[in-house]
Structure formats: C-alpha cells, structure tokens
Amino acid sequence: MANTASNKKTTLSSYFHSLSQTPQRLKKRMLATWTPDQELNQGRQRSGADMKRSLEWYDFVALGLGGMLGVGVFVTTGSVAHHQSGPSVFISYIIAGLSALLSSLCYTEFAVQVPVAGGAFSYLRLTFGEFVGYFAGANILMEYVLSNAAVSRSFTEYLSFAFGQNDPNVWRVKLHGLPKDYNMLDLPAVSLIILLTLCLCYSTKESSMLNLIMTIFHVIFFGFIIVSGYCTGSVKNLVSPKGLAPFGVRGVVNGAAKVYFSYIGYDSASTLAEEIKDPSKNLPIGIVGSVLITTVLYCLMSLSLCMMAPYNKISDKSSFAFAFAKIGGMWESDLVGAGASLGIVASLLVAMLGQARYLCVIGRARLVPSWLAKVHPSTATPLNATLFLGVCTGCIALFTDLDIIMELINIGTLVVFYLVASALIYRRYVITSHTPPFYTLIFLFLFSLSALGFSLSWKFNQLRWGLPLFGGVMITITAFYQHQVPQTHAQHAATDWCVPFMPWPPALSIFLNVFLITTLKVLSFQRFAMWACFITLFYLLYGVHSTYQAEEIEIAANQVNSSSTNAQTNKVEVQVL
Predict the structure, then answer these.
(1) Model pTM greater than 0.70?
(2) What is the pLDDT of residues 367-394, one digit of tens each?
(3) Which GO MF terms does the UniProt record name (predicted)?
(4) 266/286 Cα distance (integer angstroms)
C-alpha cells in the first residue's frame, strides 16, 4: 500500500514537472517533422506486427465507392433539394465533386510517395510538423466518428422502409427526460456498429471482399433507381413550381457545402495505402477513379429524385423511399429501403476501416496512448483502435440526431482538405525542389486571404467589386508564383504519380475548400472552435509530453545500440590483431 501511494506520488510529481517544461517541449516538438523513411519504417515498427499488403486495385476502387456511395446520396440529397438547391441539387453535387476530385489528386500524390496508414495525419506531419498533423488527424477522427454515427442512424430509417414501415422512428425508443434531438435511442444503429466492428477486427482482406460484393450490388441498385426515376418521373418536376434553381445560385452553392458530406470516404481509402499491392499504380486508379464514378452516379441519382417529385414535396429523411411511395410504387419503396440499407452498411464498413488506421498511426506517434497503435499479430489489424472507436461511434449513434452533427462533419473535413492541398504545394516546391520556404509561405498566405475575401464578398453580397478583385488577385499571384518559383522532379522516381499542372490543381482546391467553409452556418464554427480548443488542450497536457519522452527514449536506445556495436567492433579488431 505504501509503495503504491509512493509510486502514484512520484508519477504525479513527474507529470507536474513535465507540465512546467511545456514551453521548451513545444518549441522542440510542435514543428518537428518526420522523413518518409521514418514514417515507412520506424513508425510502423511501433505497432509490433505489420499490416499485410493484400489489396488489389479493384479492391481499392470498390472501397472508395463503398465508402462514398452509401453515405451522402441517401442522407443529404432530400434535405438539400428541399431547403437549399431545389432541382438543381445535381449542380451542387458537381461543385462538391470537383472540390473532392482536386483534393483526391493531392491525397493521391502523398499516398503514392508515402504509402502508410496515416492519411492526412502522416502527410501533414511530414510537411508542416507534429502539431498540424495532429490537428488534422484529430479532426479526421471527429469526422469519421460523427459521420459513422449519423449514417448508422440513417440505416435505421431506411431499414424501416424495407419492412414496409413509413415511420422512420418506428424502431427507435423514446426516452423521456432527455433533451430533444437526443431522446430517440437507436438500438439497430448500435447493433450494426457492433457487428461491423467485430468483422473489422477479424481481417482486412475478408472485410474488403464483403465490401466488394456489397458495392457491386449497390451499383446495380443505383442503376435501378436511376432508370425507375426516369421512367416513372416527369421532367416537369425539374422546373416546377419555381424553376430549376428556386433558391438562386447562392442556394446551389450553399447546397454544395452540405452535400460535400457525400464525398467523405475516398480519404478513408487512402488510409489503406499500407495494405495495397503496388501503391504507385493502384492508388491513383483507386482514389481518383472512385471519386469520378461517384460524382456521375450522384448527379444521376439526384436528377432521378427530383423527377419523381417536386422539390418542395421531397422528404428530408428517407427521401428516395418516400418519393417511390408517393408515386404509388410501394414495392419499389420497400426495395429502395433495403438497397439503401445495404449501401449504408458498405459505407460504414469502409469508414470504420479508415478511422481505426488513422488512430493507429496517431498512436504510433505517441500523441495518444500507445496501446491504440498495436496491430494484432494473428489478424494483422489494429484491434485496439478498432474496438475503441467502435464504442465511441456506438455511444453517439445511440443518442444523437442526424441534423445535430452534419455541418460539424463538413467543416472539419474541409479544413483538413485545405491543409492537405497547401501541404502538397509546400512539399513540391520547398521540400522536393529545395527553394526557400518564404516564397511559398507568402503565396499560400496571400492566396488563402484572397480566397477568403472572394468567399466573404459572395456570402454577404455587399461588396460586388470584391468578386472580380479577389478573383483576379488569385489568378495573378498563382501565375506569378508558377513563373517565378522553380520546381524539380529529381527526387521522384519515374514510376511515381504526380499531380499535373502544378500549382493550379491544389490552388483551386484551396479556393473551393475556403469557399465552401464560408457557406456554413455560424453554429458550425462555434462547435468547431470548441472541438479545436479541446484537442489543442489535449496536445498541451498529453501529446507534446508523450512524443518528447518517446523521442528521448529512442535517442537513448540508439546511443546504447551504437555503443554496443562499437564495442563489438573493437573486440573483433583486438582478436584479429
């Protein structure tokens, strides 16, 4: 008892001593970067066992499609068509799809050069340092957990239609005494999350095959909805009652920010880079191909929905099933419920694959407890991270209504994609081409500021001169930067895939992400600010000290190994003499 109390006292005093050194440790760790070699080798060794490279290109395309297709079109299309975009919701999908495509190009180049499971966390830590990587990783984890909770609750709604129930809350339990939007307990959603968590703990390859099968059926099901909508719907509904864009261009753009939720998923596929064969060939096909296919299907699906019913009569929830029921197709409505449920299962499977690998790599960096980084030697999966995030997702899905978390997901995602696009420009021009960082940092700052000025001019519609002014500034400084700052490809292998026409694609991605962020509601920024404060506080109280101590231990271990090696060498030399 006395020893235990003494140990606790020693540990507590050691922790307070660490806190007193926070400024010095922040100075050393906050901007500390890793090399690709460290990320590929040293970081992976901290997980114990390696993840198996067992996935082919078609697995990757299917994982990208599975991650995106079930999420957005069934969850957001009805609400956006009814409240923001009207029948022109398909244009909102095109705008969001263009932004996602540009971001996917940035992800692809990073994933080819650094094929590890860390996704945006690893890419940003390599480029901008530990804190920026941690900030992005924490936001991505928030996005995954919240979006998975939201999508699993949507699964319950569509499943009720599959069994002929028109009330989306029929299988939920109302609990009196809890606040509104938190009082409908969703037990089917929690059951689904538990089932998928156990599946993912078993094997990545088997989970990928399950996703491939579900995605094939899902694409066929999409084709059924598109054809049925065009056959049974009417083109008049696209212009009735108030035209193609009843809320104007502003409504179409605001809708694009909300349907961006639909493209969450391709980034989760990039976290599987550590488990794919021939990354330099298969990653570009998988990431870019899945975004392009998804955008086409989303546009056709949204057009089909708006042809079946006028936009002002489309339901916010279970919109496709409601639309078929409205035109008298009850068996189609039941089939839509079943197919949508299957698609949602596929998207959850991929997203939960991705979230566990993000947390695993953050654990390797010692920014969270290291037991979350362990890879099980038998299943070759990040078992602890999968179970932990499964529990978190299930708890949120049990209580929280879909609308509460939608826009918080989008702002976190857009911020991370903005950072990845900026990091690609910095890495290509500064780290790879060895040009002074000052010019690139000035360009990124001025371009981001101009994008913000353009976006705010659009949002508040006060400064009409702001649109041509800031638009012209963005084009001018990008062209000037391209002409004045050289870039080389000397460090890229001949087989490496690179984003073409630099720096225009990532610059356009930066602009679109900033633009879409400014269209979100003030409440989104307030919630995001609260989350940013929380994760920053966690970094100051735990992350920076954990990574500092881990580095000190590794330096000491390397010194011991070096001394041992030198001693053995000297001993051999003496024996030879």
Answers:
(1) yes
(2) 888 888 888 777 777 888 889 998 988 8
(3) amino acid transmembrane transporter activity
(4) 9
